[in-house]
Design a protein that fits this description.
Arc Repressor Mutant, subunit A; mainly alpha; about 210 residues; about 75% helix; 12 helices
């Protein structure tokens, strides 16, 4: 029974990612899962129940990423965090592409998302401040500079899939995604921080394609 429910949620994610949350019917999910729509309805009476189950699974993935105790002592630690975000974007693309539909149709999920956003921005701000103290980044030159920078990085992460769709680009370029984030941080690197960036992060970025920005 649990295996069938997992098969249904995985099939729903595939369909939601392909066609958008609002466009998918239960029959299509059942077809993707290779079961009858009656069998699907036995486990989930409607699409809302499936979305709620997916949200519960998504929470289990997001919580470890946003844990308050997480620290990023080195630049590579944050780069690994970006890899986690990118994997999340690809696995649950509809969650980011259908943001407004989820807000309107699933307000409880949207409230939870807003809490994730606050925690994510707070985590990024703390990371930047930690590295400013470490001498990797320069001190703030104006009030709330780091807060605004963290908000900008959050926007890049959250709307990465959306801007690719709008521009007609293929999804799946982790290098360009990371480059877009790291470029927001380049102006605040100290000489020491930039040396670490050149030695550790740039080689990582060169391992993957980055053709979007030309």
């Amino acid at each position: 029974m649990k295996a069938t429910k997992q098969k249904i949620t995985k099939a729903a994610i595939v369909r939601f990612n392909q066609s958008g949350l609002i466009n998918v019917r239960l029959q299509q999910i059942a077809d993707e899962a290779g079961i009858s729509v009656g069998n699907l309805a036995y486990h989930f009476p409607n699409k809302r129940a499936i979305v709620r189950q997916i949200d519960a699974e998504l929470e289990q993935i997001i919580e470890p990423i946003l844990v308050d105790e997480r620290t990023f002592s080195h630049l590579i630690d944050f780069d690994n965090q970006l890899s986690s975000y990118y994997a999340l974007l690809n696995q649950y693309a509809f969650y980011f592409l259908d943001l407004l539909e989820i807000e309107r149709a699933y307000p409880i999920i949207h409230i939870k998302r807003k809490k994730y956003i606050q925690r994510m921005i707070h985590q990024i701000v703390n990371w930047i401040k930690q590295h400013a103290d470490r001498g990797t980044f320069q001190p703030e030159i104006q009030v709330n500079q780091y807060d605004i920078l963290a908000h900008t990085i959050w926007m890049i992460i959250t709307f990465w899939m959306t801007q690719q769709k709008v521009r007609g680009l293929k999804l799946g370029n982790e290098g360009a995604f990371k480059e877009a984030v790291w470029n927001q941080l380049l102006p605040i690197f100290t000489a020491t921080g930039f040396m670490e960036y050149e030695a550790i992060i740039l080689p990582q970025l060169k391992l993957v394609n980055m053709p979007e920005f030309q």
